[in-house]
Specification:
Elements lengths: L13 H10 L10 H8 L3 H13 L7
This protein binds zinc ion (ZN).
Length: 64
């Protein structure tokens, strides 16, 4: 999969796609990178990184 951020065109990681699904919409087909999610939701990127760890440890199936 070679997904790119819908807003800025940056290449996306699986974590960013999973975060987008979690924060925006599970059925999303376009995704945003961490920087764009951060700006949209006014959440620091560092906090998004923590959320990825949190969701993964919680066993969320979106995060592999
Ligand atoms: Zn972006």
């Amino acid at each position: 999969m070679d997904e790119r951020c819908e807003k800025c065109g940056a290449p996306l990681t699986q974590d960013e796609i999973a975060l987008h699904r979690k924060l925006v919409s599970r059925g999303a087909e376009k995704f945003w990178c961490k920087e764009c999610l951060s700006a949209h939701f006014d959440i620091p990127v560092k906090r998004l990184d923590e959320l990825v760890v949190y969701y993964r440890e919680a066993g969320c199936t979106l995060f592999t």
